[in-house]
Amino acid sequence: MRATSKPISRLDGALRAPGDKSCSHRALMFAGLAEGTSFIEGLLEGEDVKDTAKAMAACGADVERISLRRWKVTGVGAAGLKNPKNILDMGNSGTGARLMMGLVAGQKLKATFDGDVSLRSRPMGRVLDPLAEMGAKNESNGGKLPLTLEGAPLSAIEYTPPHASAQVKSCVMLAGLGAIGTTIVNEPRKTRDHTERMLRAFGVTVDVEEKDGGCRISLEGGQQLTATNVDIPGDPSSATFLWAAGLLVQEGSVSVLNVMENNTRDGLVHAAKAMGANLNVVKTGEAGGEVITTITSIPSSLNAATPELAIVPAMIDEFPLFGVLAAFADGDTLVTGAEELRVKESDRITATVNMLKANGVHAEERPDGFIVRGCGRGGVPGGGIVEACHDHRIAMSALVMGCAAKAPVSVDNVSAIATSYPDFFAHMQALGADIEQG
Ligand code: S3P
Fold first, then answer.
1. Any idea which residues are catalytic in this one (predicted)?
2. Dist CA 160 CA 158 (whole Å)
3. In total, how many domains does the chain have?
4. Which residue of 18, 77, 152, 385 sits 20 to 30 Å from the alpha carbon of 233, by its own alpha carbon?
5. Is 377 annotated among the ligand-binding residues?
6. Distance 407 CA to ligand 1 centre (A)
């Protein structure tokens, strides 16, 4: 379905961020592996997470939705998961697919994985290679889905992923849980650490040594997870769309409540502040072992500022939206060191540049990033139709751009938004956005 976001002058209100997608996937997987029953509160009920819930149920965990965002999972514990009878369809989700592969290999299962047209185009060799080194067998379509993976008694490895990737790290760690010996992952640049934190909540010992912006994670195989209740904190990536829209319009104030603060995820907050964004972050409590904040944005004039290389992994999902902020800034913005964007739900370098160009913004691709010539506050022409390319973050970024451009911005197909933020339209409309679907 198509959607069009019309320019508005004001956005106002306070909303609770939806549950974090990364934490929601992990909570379902770890609860399904654990001994006993876990209750998960605040689960993100997006399509990606629902696909993980189905995959865990297909592997023998008892997964039940009790009420809105409250789920009960009874894990199999030492009895072990079973081979799924049917193909595990991971939909649009790289996280669901890659983490489930680690889990399947570590539990000595055999499973066939598939996904939608976007997921079928994404590289899986980055997880199949270390899993093969540990002893798992696979048959794939040239390193892509559909593929069949077969676990075996695995041996621990020491692995340095060639890409800064929390999915690869987490896959190797999950396989390592079922391996003989101590699995070590070395990260030259630290990526999101939800697997490390949440495995600890399920009683697993995970050692992390941080040094020079990177870290060394080690985990002894054969550890049993114990059920625990998990409170999922709000998703800082989903929250960015709301507070960024609040920065770009002329009047009002937007507050997003329940936002997880984690220094592996807050790159856009730092990047926006460096551009002069009037953003206020206040700590309000804790959930699921993470600090919770309220983020308030006030309309701001932005100046172009290039994000430092060190914060790229902490804003890896935010570059399409960062491209929109750069379009409303004064001056030119250069993004480098972000080649991983090429293998996200879409090629996000091409998709971001095309989104901007379709709306009259001068932008250019670089092999590892892009350049945007800022139009200044209120200066983005708009009026274009953006191709979402099966990518929720491209679709949402374009609709945010439409709130503050001179002319409406349309998106050809917004169905992917349901993968990560099913309440996006309701939330934007509650703030005063004028977005029409259909
Ligand atoms: C995720 C890791 C990131 C991110 C994705 C979620 C995770 O991918 O882009 O949306 O939950 O581990 P990479 O680890 O491949 O960078």
1. 317
2. 7
3. 2
4. 77
5. no
6. 33
pLDDT of residue 386: 98
Which segments within 181-289 are labelled E, that is strand? 182-187, 206-211, 214-220, 230-231, 251-261, 278-287
Residue to mutate (ligand 1; options 21, 22, 322; most atoms within 8 A of CB): 22
Q: Which two tokens stand for residue 328?
A: 């409303």
Domain edge (last residue) among 231, 251, 282: 231
CB of 316 closer than 6 angstroms to any ligand 1 atom:
yes
With a cut of 70, which residues of the chain have pLDDT below it? none
User: What does the pLDDT read at residue 229?
Assistant: 97
Verdict on whether the full-model pTM lies above 0.70 = yes
Write out the two tokens for 133: 């080194």
User: Which tens digit of pLDDT belongs to each residue from 110-120?
Assistant: 999 999 999 99
For the record, the structure tokens of 5 come out as: 């976001």
Contact 304, 275 (CB under 8 A): yes
Say what the pLDDT of residue 213 is: 84
- Residues 97 and 8 placed together within one structural domain of the fold: no
384: containing domain: 3-19+234-437
Q: What pLDDT, on the 0 to 100 scale, is given for residue 80? A: 86
Q: What is the DSSP string of 210-238?
A: EETTEEEEEEETTPPPB---EEPPB-HHH
Q: CA 75, CA 55: separation in Å to the nearest integer?
A: 13
347 noted as active-site residue: no
The three-state secondary structure class of 298 is strand
Per-residue model confidence (pLDDT) at position 289: 83
User: Which residues lie below 8 Å from residue 308, measured CB to CB, with a gap of 6+?
Assistant: none
Is 110 in contact with 150 (CB distance < 8 Å)? yes
Q: How far apart are CA 104 and CA 88, in angstroms?
A: 11
